Amino acid sequence: MVHLASIPTDAQVDPVVDGLKKFKFERVPSIFPDEDLEDEDPAVISVYGSKYAAQDLPKIEMPEKEMPREVVYRMIKDDLTLDGNPTLNLASFVTTYMEEEAEKLMVDGFAKNFIDYEEYPVSADIQNRCVSMIARLFNIPAHDEKTNAMGTSTIGSSEAIMLAVLAMKKLWQNKRKAEGKSTDKPNIVMNSAVQVCWEKAARYFDVEERYVYCTADRYVIDPEEAVDLVDENTIGICAILGTTYTGEYEDVKAINDLLVEKDIDCGIHVDAASGGFVAPFTKPDIVWDFRLPKVVSINVSGHKYGLVYPGVGWVIWRDPEFLPKELIFNINYLGADQASFTLNFSRGASQIIGQYYQLIRLGKRGYRKIMCNLTRTADYLAMNLSELGFIIMSKLSGAGLPLVAVRLDPRKGAKYDEFAVAHQLRERGWVVPAYTMAPHSENLKMMRVVVREDFSKSRCDALLQDFKFALETLDKMDERKIEDHRQHMVQQAANKWRKLSVLGGPNAAYKDQDDHSLQGKHGKTHAVC
Ligand SMILES: *Cc1c(COP(=O)(O)O)cnc(C)c1O
Asked: Residue positions of the PTM N6-(pyridoxal phosphate)lysine (predicted)?
């Protein structure tokens, strides 16, 4: 019998686990009287009085027996409290707030598999209503009140982009075959600052990536360079409406005009993942969409500024002529014929219903008011960060996404970098990513704050206060302390990542591929998404 008061001998201490010398829980005796815990009545037990509270949650093997639902609910909820707080996560564009009525509709839709068109024809029709509204928002050409728009909902912009790349590749192959030419070496032209899903699409579908590189003072695609990279094997050019790094809108019109002027047969796909629900409201005069004849397809994330919880994106083609028929499946499921062009078969209907709610609940004026507020908050944040000595790298007054990208002014000679500032903010609960700019931009470091719908003026003030505090703290540290602190944070991050694995499960076989799967070739991480 081990008494709690007795001093442990070395033999009783377990080997080091996770760098921590610790006793096994089983060695700590229970002082509970003799009743048999196995006889606990699930109907009366309390969560924290049950035997489960004294056990680890099952992690490796599926448990043999059931657990009471209240216990499971509470234990998983407790486990999740160690996740970050989504509203303080200023790294992400993805929606963290929806109205209760929208949530109720979405919960009602949980049990519907969207692909069962026959069973859920209204959900299918709601998708088509959203496609029509979004295509018109992007100024799809109308012929006698009708448009030829084709489009579909997806899980997000990544799937939308995969589909768009497949359509461009197939279209190019068909053209080449008709001309009796080789289809061995398709390529796609894009900015080196593309979101990682473009690299994925190119690699998954065997399309060569042709990059226009950013420079120390240009973070968007150079239209001339882009068009110069086009050759007979180019399936298309990608232009980004709202880059992930600085939120800038690339000059789609300039690319379009060059292609027209030089009479080059090459289409443009606009990656409007973030900008598609912003620019039409804040800057309707920027011509980036189907008003340009060379724009063949556009994607947008419903779960970013489309204001829906994660799991929905959209892709629209200007005309069926740009969506080769071979890619479309007419699925006859439970009796109904419906065209389908997606990578997934089954998916939830909730996000599509949520998108429809937002489109008709807010209308154009509602979106405009929200996007204009966000732009104003972003400007306010930028002006104040500039006051604190940061260099502002993003655009103001709606000329880009409502986000603020900054870097420290090298002339100030600070002994710390952007990563140190991010770490300081992290200690106060804020997630503000620091990252290195796309290649060929002289290893510029920067930080980015995404202004989302639920980032109000007063939350912005709280962030500014903490920015100020972070700089004051760092200014007071000497170089060695900053370095110690940095090492500590690096170690912590490494520990965290060691435990997580991209593919889930114990996939040691992929260990040395981590660099690729997590970061892509250009060092992109999940933090910048
Ligand atoms: C977020 C983003 C993507 C990926 O979109 P998901 O909806 O997260 O799949 C692609 N491109 C850009 C420019 C983005 O901002």
From this structure: 304
